[in-house]
């Protein structure tokens, strides 16, 4: 248990604007998604509370959130067991997202006005701006803004609901890839290419670039997961 806590401490950011319970939850989730806490690990809430010198409230909140995201499970008479995600899971999640993002982009393209395209371009310009300033956190938020914009403009509520089921994974997959300077710059350029395809109303280009964009992210994330020996 002490090893688990040491890992969580490394990912615990008390300097962020988040509440304590959100910070603890984020630290556990990041540690599990990245494979630092492997599947099968047992988590004891009381021990976590003692070793982190915190009340049980933020620990319980974190475990409840992780349970709802299917990253941990409560086993009767045993306790909380980490389920995590495997490399196989990551491959499957990316394959699903390639087609969902492509569909969302095409539908958004069909519904967007010139003003909408101007707003989309501003989002991309901001990504380049934040990258130049090396404000990585803002680039990561910008990428979420870009994706949310497309799904909102697609006006497909059920599609958005499906994507939201995977948002915990997408969040950390995004962070893993964008923390790399090389991958981050490539990804921003790929967003600009997706915009261009949508602006030109070129379905073939949208499909090709969206798939390439997520394939590059997938390859990077999988390589990082392999470093942590996730099966």
Question: Secondary structure elements and their pairing?
Answer:
Elements: H1 2-10, H2 20-33, E1 42-43, H3 45-52, H4 56-68, E2 72-75, E3 79-82, H5 87-111, H6 114-132, H7 136-154, H8 157-164, H9 167-178, H10 181-199, H11 203-227
Antiparallel strand pairs: 1-3, 2-3
Helix pairs in contact: 1-2, 2-4, 3-4, 5-7, 5-11, 6-7, 6-10, 7-9, 9-11, 10-11
Textual characterization of the structure:
With 231 residues, the protein is mainly alpha-helical. It has two domains: 82 residues, Winged helix-like DNA-binding domain superfamily/Winged helix DNA-binding domain (Arc Repressor Mutant, subunit A); 142 residues, GntR ligand-binding domain-like (Four Helix Bundle (Hemerythrin (Met), subunit A)). The protein is 74% helix and 4% strand. Strands 1-3-2 form a three-stranded antiparallel sheet. Helix 2 crosses helix 4 and helix 7 crosses helix 9. The longest helix has 25 residues.
Q: How is this structure best summarized?
A:
It comes from Helcococcus ovis. The chain is mainly α. It has 11 helices and 3 strands; from the N terminus they run H-H-E-H-H-E-E-H-H-H-H-H-H-H.
What characteristics describe this protein?
231 residues, mainly alpha, Arc Repressor Mutant, subunit A, Four Helix Bundle (Hemerythrin (Met), subunit A), three-stranded antiparallel sheet, 3 strands, 74% helix, 4% strand, elongated
CATH evolutionary superfamily of the largest domain: GntR ligand-binding domain-like
Secondary-structure element sequence? HHEHHEEHHHHHHH
- How much helix, percentage-wise, in residues? over 70%
- Stretches with pLDDT under 50, minimum 5 residues: none
What would you report as the Rg, rounded to the nearest angstrom? 19 Å
What is the CATH fold-level name of the largest domain? Answer: Four Helix Bundle (Hemerythrin (Met), subunit A)
Mean pLDDT: 90
| The first-level CATH class name of the largest domain | Mainly Alpha
Main structural class: mainly alpha
Largest sheet: 3 strands, antiparallel
Strand percent estimate: under 5%
CATH architecture of the largest domain: Up-down Bundle
């Amino acid at each position: 248990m002490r090893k688990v806590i040491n890992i969580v401490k490394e990912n615990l950011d008390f300097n962020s604007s988040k509440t304590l319970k959100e910070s603890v939850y984020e630290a556990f989730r990041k540690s599990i998604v990245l494979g630092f806490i492997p599947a099968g690990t047992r988590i004891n809430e009381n021990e976590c509370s003692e070793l982190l010198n915190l009340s049980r409230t933020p620990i319980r909140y974190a475990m409840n959130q992780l349970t709802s995201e299917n990253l941990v499970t409560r086993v009767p008479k045993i306790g909380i067991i980490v389920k995590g995600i495997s490399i196989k899971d990551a491959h499957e999640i990316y394959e699903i997202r390639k087609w969902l993002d492509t569909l969302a982009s095409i539908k958004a393209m069909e519904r967007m006005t010139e003003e909408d395209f101007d707003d989309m371009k501003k989002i991309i310009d901001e990504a380049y701006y934040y990258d130049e300033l090396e404000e990585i956190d803002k680039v990561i938020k910008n990428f979420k803004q870009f994706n949310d914009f497309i799904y909102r403009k697609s006006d497909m509520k059920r599609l958005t609901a499906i994507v939201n089921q995977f948002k915990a994974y997408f969040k950390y997959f995004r962070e893993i890839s964008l923390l790399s300077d090389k991958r981050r710059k490539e990804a921003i350029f790929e967003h600009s290419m997706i915009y261009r395809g949508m602006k030109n109303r070129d379905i073939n280009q949208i499909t090709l670039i969206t798939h390439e964009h997520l394939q590059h992210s997938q390859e990077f994330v999988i390589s990082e997961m392999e470093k942590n020996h996730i099966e």
